[in-house]
Each structure stands twice: as structure tokens, then as C-alpha cells.
């Protein structure tokens, strides 16, 4: 039993141990951090963030993972370093007092140093060893050790000693970062990658079209799988964050939950319920068609439902939007005060696309909204090629769908023909596409709203006139007149005309009714007179008949009388006579 | 050499290695020759007192530091080149 157990168990240490850096995103792309107990080389040009990354490694280690660290600075003094990273909220002095970190500034002044004969760098080893032992450090940073080459001239000794140093670091079992400037065509100027071969991370700071983007790439990571792409990273007031969103698998959670658009008539167009939660909506249209208004309504609805929303504005300032929306009866300020609505306005040219993506990503992670709005995405084209914008948006949509966040993009289209426009190609990516279009006729411009597509729901194929008034947004059925679609004043005119028509018709019907009434009355009176006539004729006839009858009776009576008189018989005879007569 | 000059020299070593022994004997020889009675040599073994390495910015051993007279000068190596050491310490003009 026990034998089997031991064979099943893998010997400890066979797996590469990793040390979490605590730097947002870096641990994800390295699959758990830097190799424990081994040196990692971080190289890159001047100002690419090497010192910052390594400082954060030390600080996070001390604060998050309770791993003290030694920072050996060959460039900056401890004070300079403390000042430089104070803006990121790192209090190096306090950490030093708490003996969580130790900063040792190694200063080499070539002008005051003479070299005669053989020497070694045992002094450096002793210093480092002493620093490590004094606080029980688990992490070490050497930033930038290549500066030694500037201070000492015997390259042969230096190289041999550095090789020994890295070996010594491994023996010490500390997780180390060694930074180096990248050289011409080489990872580092002095070829340090020869000595540090476990993990090499390259930082890059590129300027394309006057917009700079920082990128990070893992050149190699012995014994570990790792992402090989260039990942954009961001340095902001909270330190460094790397963006690991590049996965494009299509295995997303979906929901059938619906969220209202904020415009009841639009909800009705979308099967009566609105958008899908976690869906993506594109609102495109030409200039001044009310895209921002639709977006603001959606934001307002989201907040009114008690959910959070971030509004990324690339065109207008938050105050501008709040003011403008007040004019159509939207009060966004209350939501802002309640902490449900956040505005983030930045010029697209502030930084590169990737940076925008990183900052959006970060804000979403912090604020955890249910919906976000990007207004407008077309402005991003100013900082990147169309293909780049699309790639960025794909990644964003991907991320948002995973997080089940509804996103609404607005896009400015330059031509009004639907077939020609591509909307940065995102139309194929989004679930719902609303198009607001100008409809020009009779010397005026009106807005027409179409639901071009809406995946997975019944939606109206009708064009609706989109009306922006003091009371807000509304959608009205357009009129299909003999001359085509009627909007705006033409629609009003049509409505008036129809109202007039109804009145006229009503009047006409009245007149006919009266005519019929009159006729009926005439006929009725005719019927009455005829009846009277009939009665008088009948009476006449009856009179004649009665007269005849009376006459007959009188004649009979007189004949009987005469008969009695003639015979003078008894009553029986009279009867007999009567029978004979019959 | 002016009499009021007092030379304070500090030699940093890391254990009794070949290089440190050579450096110390070289240094003593030069001082006896040029600074007799005017110098003081302090030998610091960093193996024993590692905390002292930071103060004088010691990286390499052996390192000779001239504390007085100012400015501070540093000479690293086993001090085998007599002229370089003397010039470096400003004992003889360059």
C-alpha cells in the first residue's frame, strides 16, 4: 500500500516552483509567476519600466506575500528610488523601517577608482549576502547590474564574477530579478542572457504614430509554458498591469436575461424587452443623429435599475455630456452622486489602443459595472489602423462577454448608405446593431432608426422616426405616403390632413343621415294617409253592407207582417209557414 | 612630504586570500618607503564585518580606501603596480 502511494507521488521539486509577483496580469501570463529560487532577466530599453517592475516585485512580495526583499540599486540611490515610486503608493522608507525590504545603493565612481592587479567582487557578494541575511530576504533585485561595466574596466574579471554571482544567487535560493539594458540586436548590452537563462522577459516601449505603447514579452521560460505574445502593459498610479486578454475562444456564458434600452418604444422594437444582458450593441449613424443620446438613455436606465455603468467618452467631457443630456430631460448627475455611474473621458490620442484597452479593463475590474458605453469607437481610429481597432474591440467584447457586461458602442459613419459602411468591422461582432440615419425630404432633416440586426430575438423591421425633444427620446411610426416615407413636418402635415378628412367625412355622413330621416318621415306620412284612406274606404264599404242588411231585414219583416195579416193564423201556423218557406 | 599630513588608509579584504595578503604586504612596503611615520593602515575583513561594506561602497576586494587626506580615493586590486598605487594615492604626482 505504502509502496504504491510513494510511486504515485511525484518527487517534490520535479515541478518548477513559481513565485507570484503580485503584479496584475503578469502572474497570469507566466502561469504563476517567476521561477522560485532562480534569477530572471528583465531587459529593455531606457524608460521601459524595468526598475518599476522590479520595485513592484519587491514591494508586492513584502506586502502581499510576506516575502522580504533586497533591492540592490546600481543606478539610483535609495532616496531617489523612494521618491520615484512614492507616486505609486509604495512607501519604501516605511517598509525599510519594518525590515521588510532593504535597499542597497551601489555607487561606483570611475574617476575615484584605480585598478591595479587582480581583484574579485567578493565585496559585492558579502554586501548582498549580508543584506539578504539581515532581513531573511526571499526576493532580490539587481537593478541594473550592467552598470558595473561602466565602473570597472576589467571585463574579464567582471564576466567571471557575474557568472559566479548568478550561480551564487541560485545557491542562496532567492528569487531574483536582474535588469539589463537591451543592446543593438541583442537582448542585453553585455550578453547577460548567457548567464541568466531560466526566464527572460523583454519590455518594450514603442512609439507608433506619435502614440507610445508599452509591451511585455516572455522571451523564454525554461520548464514552463507561457504566453509568447507581446502583451501591452500599463503603468499608472497603482503600478504596473499587464493585460492578458488575447484568448479568442468562443465558449462564453450566455444568458436570456434582458435589459431595457431606456426607450420604451425601442424595447418594443426589440421584441418588447430590450437587449440581452452581456450582449454588445452598436449604435451607428451620421453626425448629429443622437447616438450619444441613445447611449445616455441606456446608461440612465441601467443606473435607474440600480446597476452600475461606466461611460467611456472619447469625444466629449463628462460635464458636457451631463449638461447636454439635461436638455433632453435626463439627470445623470444623480446617478454619478449615487456612485452608480462613472464617466471616463480621455482623448483617444492620450495613449495607444492597447493602453485604452488596459485602462478600460482595469476600470471594469475595479468598478464591476453591469454595462459600459464606449462613445464613440470611431475616434479610436485616430490612434490605430482600422485592423488594430477591430482587434482591440474583439478582445474587449470577448472580455466583456465573459464578464457578462453589456456594452454599447457608438460609431460615427461618414456615408449614409448602409451597405457601404463597415463600422470598423465590428458589425459582425456585435449582437445588436442599431442604425440612426438621416432622412432628408422637403428641405428638412429627420432621423430614422432601424434595427439592422439583433441576434436571437424577434425584432421589428420597421423604420421608426427617432424624435429628440425636451421630454426625451421617442420613436414614432413613420408614415408611408404615396411619395414614400414621411417624416417630420411632412408626417405632421399628413396627420393633419387625415384629421381633416375624418371631419369632412363625419359631416358628410351626417348630411346623408338627415336626408334619409327626412325621406323616412315623408314615407311614413304617406303610409299614414294611405291608411286613413283605406279606413274610410273600408267604412264606406261597411256602410253599404249594413244598409243592405238593414234593408233586407226590413223587407223580411214587412213581408212577414203582410203574411200574418193576410192569413190571421195562430202562432203555430206561422211557424209552419215559415218552414215551408225554407 | 609635509609633516602635518596624516594618511589614513583602509584596506578592505575578504578573508585571508592570496590577493589580500599580497595587497597588504604591498601597501605596507610602499607606506614604509614614502610615508614613514605619517600613516595608519586599518584592515577590515568583510567576512567578519560585512555591515561595513556598504559605507565605503565596497564591491571589489581588495579595495584600498584613502580616507584622509580628502578627497577619498579608491584603489582596487592586489596593489602590485607600485607607480599606479602611489599616483592613485596622490603620494607622488602623476
Care to describe what's here?
- The complex is a heterodimer of chains A (582) and B (94).
- With 582 residues, chain A is of the alpha/beta class.
- Chain A has four domains: 17-242, P-loop containing nucleotide triphosphate hydrolases (Rossmann fold), CATH 3.40.50.300; 258-477, Rossmann fold; 488-525; 537-566.
- Chain A is 41% helix and 24% strand.
- Chain A has 16 helices and 25 strands.
- Chain A has a nine-stranded mixed sheet with strand order 5-4-7-8-3-9-10-11-12, sandwiched between helices. A nine-stranded mixed sheet of chain A has the order 17-16-18-19-15-20-21-22-23, sandwiched between helices.
- In chain A, α13 (353-367) runs parallel beside α14.
- Chain A starts with a helix and ends with a helix.
- Chain B is 26% helix and 26% strand.
- Chain B contains two helices and four strands, in the order βαβββα.
- In chain B, β1 (7-13), α1 (18-34) and β2 form a beta-alpha-beta unit.
- The relative contact order of chain B is 0.25.
- β6 (113-115) of chain A pairs parallel with β4 (73-76) of chain B, so a sheet runs across the interface.
Question: What are its keywords?
Answer:
A: 582 residues, alpha/beta, Rossmann fold, 9-stranded mixed sheet, 16 helices, 41% helix, 24% strand, disordered N terminus, B: alpha+beta, Glutaredoxin, 4-stranded mixed sheet, 4 strands, 26% helix, 26% strand
The domain count of chain A comes to 4
Q: If strands are numbered along the chain, what order do they take across the biggest sheet of chain A?
A: 5-4-7-8-3-9-10-11-12
In total, the number of domains of chain B comes to 1
Return the CATH class of the largest domain in chain A: Alpha Beta
Q: In one word, what is the shape of chain B? A: globular
Q: Main β-sheet of chain B: number of strands, strand sense, barrel status?
A: 4 strands, mixed
End-to-end CA span of chain B:
15 Å
> What is CATH's topology name of the largest domain in chain A?
Rossmann fold
Mean pLDDT of chain B: 85
Query: According to CATH, what is the topology of chain B?
Result: Glutaredoxin
As a percent range, the share of strand residues of chain B is 25-35%
Q: What is the distance, rounded to the nearest whole angstrom, between the alpha carbons of the first and last residues of chain A?
A: 148 Å
Proportion of residues in β-strands of chain A: 15-25%
CATH class of chain B: Alpha Beta
Secondary structure category of chain A? alpha/beta
Most extensive chain-chain interface: A-B, 24 and 34 residues
- The ordered string of helix (H) and strand (E) elements of chain B is EHEEEH
Q: What proportion of the residues of chain A is helical, as a percent range? A: 40-55%
Under CATH, the homologous superfamily of the largest domain in chain A reads P-loop containing nucleotide triphosphate hydrolases
CATH superfamily membership of chain B = Glutaredoxin
The helix fraction of chain B, in percent, is: 25-40%
